[in-house]
Amino acid sequence: MPIKKNNKKILIVVGTRPNFVKIKPLLEEFKKRKNIKPVLVHTGQHYNFEMSDIFFKELGIRKPDYNLNARSGLHGKQTAKILTGLEKIYFKEKPDMVVVLGDVNSTLAGALAASKMGIPLCHIESGLRSYDKKMPEEINRVLTDHVSDFLFCPTENAVENLREEGIQKNVYNTGDLMYDIFLKNENNLKKHNEILQTLKITPQKYLLLTIHRASNTENPKVLENIIRAVAETRDIVIFPCHPRTEKVLGKTMLNGFRNIRIVKPVGYMEMLCLEKNAKKIITDSGGVQKEAYWFKVPCITLRDNAEWVETVKSGWNILVGGDRQKIVKAIKCFEPDGRQEAYYGSGKAAKKITDIITQVLKNG
User: Fold this and answer.
1) What is the pTM of this model?
2) Catalytic residues
3) pLDDT tens string 219-239
4) Interval 321-342: pLDDT, tens
5) How would CATH label the architecture of 186-333?
6) Residue 78 belongs to what H/E stretch?
7) Rg of the chain, C-alpha, whole Å
């Protein structure tokens, strides 16, 4: 369909599982605006069916306009490949604005390309900080924030983080896009209870484990500590295994640990179902920490720090790092007793973001 002269073209860069979830409510809002033409670019940072295609299929997200097929690789090589591919697309499409999300290599590459070409840049999920520069995600989010023109924060704490770094112009607390889609799907999970039957597990009788961060997967000793700690529990442990983690684990590390069941990565709705019905969740994922909080399921985080500090301050999330004794103790003893606050908005983040972008483009 030809683009009318008065239409504004917004190019959205996505590349990983969390990005795919977040763009669903955003694309729905863009669709309601007659004068906005979204162009969707998939970098291919996550690329197999379980990590990518299943989310587009399950959430009803339209096929991307471009796919760079970046695939796995060292951080520098992967980021450079994405950046180079995006520059060509930016030159061809000449977007009025670029939108990047989160803190992955695709985020940084999309931000650098837009910034160097003078294209207005929006960063969704701005202001998150773990203050751990050993994390690639921390580097990505800090650099992206400092080259962005419009910064959409999921929490008030994120706004304050930016303020402390001297970033105050065009900063908005919009709430969290993940909360938008969570609320929309929370009541539809009964349709996906088949995953419990397939795995032959009973609600509140299993632990859910996810591991994918480099700090845990690239250190064999830390990974072994985690596996041995969760193996000490008498509960069944359901472990949807990230491809990177599966490669590191190999065939020997899980020998003799019969309570740990490795399964392939699952889709969004099945993952929500597993989270909702778990006795406790053990994870190093930021998104899973939040979803555990929203489901009021105790969360044990395999990190020494967290960017979603609200879940920890409220008493629903405990940081244990890769310390075997701390993990074992948390599995046995950690029981949240704090009340919950509405830190992540009211489920209207996509509308707020789109309203702001629409007004900005209208004003030129």
Assistant:
1) 0.92
2) 212
3) 888 999 999 999 999 899 999
4) 999 999 999 999 999 977 889 9
5) 3-Layer(aba) Sandwich (3.40)
6) helix 75-93
7) 20
**Tokens 């929006």, located at residue:** 122
Pick the CATH number of 8-175+348-362 from 3.40.50.2300, 3.40.50.720, 1.10.630.10, 3.40.50.2000: 3.40.50.2000
The Cα–Cα gap between 354 and 360 comes to: 10
- The pLDDT, as a whole number, for residue 363 is 85
The whole-angstrom separation of Cα 343 and Cα 156 is 8
The per-residue b/e assignment along 291-318, b for 16 or more CB within 10 angstroms, e otherwise, is: bbbbbebbbbbbbebbbbbbbbeeebbb
Q: CB of 298 within 8 A of CB of 334? A: yes
The tokens for 221 are 């000793």
Domain ranges of the chain: 8-175+348-362, 186-333
> What is the chain's length?
364
Please give the single-letter amino acid code of residue 295: F
Give me the amino acid identity at 159. Answer: V
Residue 146: is it exposed, middle or buried by C-beta count within 10 angstroms (0-12/13-18/19+)? Answer: middle
Kindly write down the DSSP assignment for every residue of 193-258, as one continuous string: THHHHHTT--TTSEEEEE---HHHHS-HHHHHHHHHHHHTSSSEEEEE--HHHHHHHTTTTTTT-T
